[in-house]
Amino acid sequence: MSDLQDIARRVAACTDCGLAKGRTRAVPGEGPEQAQVMFIGEGPGYNEDQQGRPFVGAAGQLLEQLLATAGLSRSQVFITNMVKCRPPNNRDPLPGEIAACSKYLDRQIELIKPKVIVTLGRYSLGKFLPGQTIGKVHGKPRTVGQQVVCPMYHPAAALHQASLKKDIEQDFKTLASQLREAAQAETPKEPEPKQMSMF
Ligand code: URA
Ligand code: SF4
């Protein structure tokens, strides 16, 4: 069993916070261990809880469209949430629930070592850039420890507010150019031509 599958198995059996009681299925997250980009939302909603998969409802459809604008497909990236079980009636996750669940997210980050972490909404923003407000920092990447963190609005918020949708679309385009630049910086340079010498 891979380490990521092991985390998923532990999440499915977890009762470390009150959200365990109301869940249909836990939603550990999904994507390849080699993913270079990781997306972190808030918590599962109704559809996610039913299917055990992250971002499969309306917000997920928008996320997939946005990924396409950044030249990314869902199968290339890792997608997860701050809390792995659905809060009742989609209420905000409580600080104690986020704290209890953070060990799983931290381990996922440790295993995947993504180059870029995209935070979706204010809860995942708070994990990496505490005290910052999304309206000010969205679309502006920062280096935090080993990762580049790119804060974005939550796709569900963008579904309800046209101005946020424009912002998030623009932020995904910026992400695309950042990823291209990072890839170019990594391409090995042509070796220097050998100096010919008569001596
Ligand atoms: N919203 C989230 O934050 N996460 C999901 O998985 C789905 C909707
Ligand atoms: Fe465990 Fe996280 Fe689910 Fe709480 S939300 S029961 S900590 S997996």
Task: Describe the fold and architecture.
- This protein is α/β, with parallel strands linked by helices.
- Helices cover 47% and strands 12% of the residues.
- It has a five-stranded mixed β-sheet with strand order 2-1-3-5-4, with helices on both faces.
- It is globular and about 55 Å long.
- It starts with a helix and ends in a 13-residue tail after the last helix.
Question: What topology emerges from the helices and strands here?
Answer:
Layout: H1 3-13, H2 19-22, E1 37-41, H3 46-51, H4 58-69, E2 78-81, H5 95-112, E3 116-120, H6 122-128, H7 134-137, E4 142-144, E5 147-152, H8 155-160, H9 162-186
Parallel strand pairs: 1-2, 1-3, 3-5
Antiparallel strand pairs: 4-5
Helix pairs in contact: 1-5
The protein binds uracil and iron/sulfur cluster.
Summarize this entry quickly:
The protein is of the alpha/beta class. It is 47% helix and 12% strand.
- CATH architecture, by name, is 3-Layer(aba) Sandwich
Task: Tell me the total number of β-strands.
Answer: 5
- Bound heterogens, unique: uracil, iron/sulfur cluster
Strand-and-helix sequence, N→C? HHEHHEHEHHEEHH
Overall mean confidence score, pLDDT: 93
Number of helices: 9
Highest-level CATH class:
Alpha Beta
Report strand order across the widest sheet: 2-1-3-5-4
Assembly of the depicted chains: single chain
